[in-house]
Amino acid sequence: MQDFMNKKMSRRSFFGTSAAVATILGLAACGNSSTSDSGSSSSGDENKKKRIAVLCDDAGKNDNGYNQAAVEGAQKVGQDKGWEVKIVEPTNGVPDALESLGEDGYDIVFNMAYDFEALINGVGGAEPLASQYPDTEWVIFNDNPNKNDDGSVKHKNVIAVLYDLNESSFLAGALSVLVNENAETLFKGGDYSFTDPSTARACGFIGGTNSAGIVVFSYGYITGINYEAEKLGVTYDYYAKYDAGFTDSAGGATVAGTYYGNGANVVFGCAGSVGDGITSKAKEVGKLAIQVDGNKDDQQPGYVLTSVLKNTNVPVQTICDALDDGSLSSMDNLQDYSLASGATGLTDCTEIQKAITTDEGKAKWEEIWAEIEDLKGKVGSEIKVVNAQNGETFDPSTCPNVNIK
Amino acid sequence: MDLLASILYDTVYHAAPIILCVIGGVFAYQANVLNIALEGMMGIGAFASTLTVYFTNSLVLGLLAGVLAALIFGAIFSVMGVTLRGNVIIIGVALNLLVTAIAGFVMVRMNVANISLSSLNVSDLQIIIPGIDAIPILGPIVSGHPILTYVAFIGIWLMWVLSYRTKFGTYVRVVGENEDAAKSLGLKTNFYKIVAILIGALTCGLAGINLSTERLGLYTNGMTAGRGFVAIAAIYCGRGDPLKSSLYAILFGFARSLSINLAIYAGPASGLFDVIPYVVMVVVLLVVQVSKRRNVRTRGFANG
User: Fold this and answer.
1) Which residues in chain A have their CB less than 8 angstroms from residue B220's CB?
2) Where is this protein found (chain B) (predicted)?
3) Quick one: average pLDDT of B273-298?
4) Would you tell me which residues 101-130 of chain B have a C-beta closer than 8 angstroms to some C-beta of chain A?
5) Which of A237, A379, B104, B170 makes the best surface tag, with the fewest CB within 10 Å?
6) Average pLDDT of chain B?
7) Any chain A CB within 8 A of the CB of B221?
8) Which segments of A224-367 are extended strands (E)?
């Protein structure tokens, strides 16, 4: 009997708890959509003020990089032009957030998240959001799904933004080799324990997922390593992992640890939070890491060599300017931002330079940096680097001085 | 570091937080409370400790904060799940989700994407035992780990003693095996359940501190990455025995370490190695379940 009572009791409380949870979830959902709705108070119909929105991905608007640059770019546009700017961090999934932004009639929506299915093709039998809301200009990043099988543009009101990350990664590869070869001179007296290049030459790469958006970095990096290694007549081992995920920073740190343990002095991390684990490991073992997306050089000062930048504010500015002067409709649906546009590249390396204390090291750094500056002019014209994001395939035999493990 | 040494070292590295979760989590299992909030307790411990060290630069305060935060989670779980008899699955899920929400919110307010302790160099926290660290196989296992890793391994024995050599341990198991009988003996069953949960919370807090502050000097959201659930699987594999369950935790650490270290030699096939830990878990659970069932059948309680 007692047992029966208990069972009954716990069943009742189960329903009670579920109801409470459901209510909370429901409230959260309302909260989400109401944030998307708010802030449209001043947009009177007669005085049509332009409205733009930035939809952040999981990393959030304060990621000190990719999202934050776009948010700041949009806010600058808002200030300069007096436009209304809406920043959304989706809590209920990207498609829902996109839909409510379309519903609200924003002029431009920048979708930073790597989630295009609902927008381009429609999910669950629904019409694609891009055709449901044709008056909104949708901007997506890092991929171009907006094309039919024959290569023609699917939705006129979608702009895909791609970066020539292959070119900036090339520079990172060249810099890695140059620093690796001269680590002893550069960082004399510092708290480092580099592997002497005469015993082992290696670089590492850790990517979050095996997609074109990630391997583009790796291929560029390999090509850059190969370019400098060939000049010096040496061979580099290349350790790469493309499935480290984006959250398990401790796991990423151990992977980086094995690369460092095998003689790599520089590991390039391209995997969200996992990259933060890599820089932490670099500090632990006294070696160097390369970060990605935003300028994260000060994350572990002295142990982050540089960051490969995606300056999302540049396309935000360009596209908003186009809307302002009416040229948006004639804009190409695929926007490619090269090294020369300033939208991608390396940081100015001021953080790592602080770790170079001797005059000899400083002179060497100047020498290395001059070489990088020189390469900047050549990449894209004289030096061709495979761009995986455009569907180009990488042939390892073109890089004989890199031994890909 | 040669391959064998780094495999062994990484085994200990990956096993330690899981062992910490396991040795405390077994008590809830023994008391027949399904605590799926191990993951959340570990996460909040990691977050609170890193956050505290970030603001105070004090590792001791960080340790206290991490443990305290996990104990608060344990208390919430106990009150809702044991005292108020709520559904432990729902409460557990809520607590697990709450961590990333709280941490995400705080980090947004702080305008950071992660909490990184740049004042701390984690290599200073590693205890290198002179003499032993040079011994080939023993060195990487015994030397060069942070203090909570040692606590984890000592804790296996401590928890085994607590479980099988004290009155408390016996009572917890009595409560778990037959609550009505325990009540008839005059045991305060809820008390034992709550203490069992709190012990789990305490060690999960330590696991979180080990994972974040002590090993990386870094908190990133979601960094527990399912380790709490692996711990639950280990507890079930070992049927609540701290020693056996910890062995499964070590096995998992070993598989993880293999997948990371052999990836260098396996090239593109490295992805396959990442499957090892999960295949091991499924196989182990299957074997344990089959042998358990056979036991039950020979004793004549076929549907028991």
Assistant:
1) 247, 249, 273, 276-277
2) Cell membrane
3) 79
4) 104, 107-108, 110-114, 116, 118, 121-123
5) B170
6) 90
7) yes
8) 236-241, 264-270, 288-293, 304-310, 334-337, 344-346
Q: What is the pLDDT of residue A187?
A: 93
Is A133:A103 a contact under the CB 8 Å cutoff? yes
Partner-chain contact B6 A14, CB within 8 Å: no
> Which pair of structure tokens corresponds to residue A372?
């990088």
Nearest one of A110, A111, A129 to A119, comparing CA atoms: A129
Q: At what angle do helices B227-237 and B242-266 cross, to 10 degrees?
A: 130
Point out the residue among A13, A61, A257 whose CB comes nearest to the CB of B86: A13
Instruction: Give the minimum alpha-carbon distance from A14 to chain B in angstroms, rounded to a whole number.
Output: 5
Q: What is the pLDDT of residues B97-145, one digit of tens each?
A: 999 999 989 998 888 888 999 888 888 899 888 888 888 888 888 888 9
Domains of chain A, by residue range, sit at: 46-163, 166-309+344-404
Cα nearest neighbour of B125 on chain A: A284
| DSSP 8-class letter at A108 | E
Please list the residues that pair with A147 across neighbouring strands. Answer: A153
Q: How far apart are CA B136 and CA A77, in angstroms?
A: 62
Topology given in CATH for the domain delimited by A166-309+344-404: Rossmann fold (3.40.50)
User: The domain containing residue B279 runs over which residues?
Assistant: 3-298
- What percentage of chain B carries pLDDT values higher than 90? 63
Note whether A299 contacts B108, CB cutoff 8 Å. Answer: no
Q: H or E segment at A200?
A: none
B304 inside domain: no
The answer to whether the CB atoms of A13 and B87 lie below 8 A apart is yes
**Quick one: which H or E segment has residue B55?**
helix B38-56
Counting the structural domains of chain B, the total is 1
Residues in chain A with CB shorter than 8 Å from the CB of B121 are 283-284
Inter-chain touch A280–B116, beta carbons under 8 Å: yes
Complex ipTM > 0.90: no
**Out of A6, A247, A279, closest to residue B225 by CB:** A247
Contact residues, chain A, for B272 at CB < 8 Å: none
- Residue B150: how many other CB atoms lie within 10 Å: 14
Given CATH 3.40.50.2300, say whether it is the number of domain A46-163: yes
Regions of chain A with pLDDT less than 70 = 1-47
- Read off the pLDDT of residues B178-229 as tens digits, 9 standing for 90 and up: 999 999 989 999 999 999 999 999 999 999 999 999 999 999 999 998 999 9
CA A56 to chain centre: 12
Of all residues in chain B, the percent with pLDDT exceeding 70 is 96
CA distances from A185 to A188, A244, A356 (A): 6, 33, 9
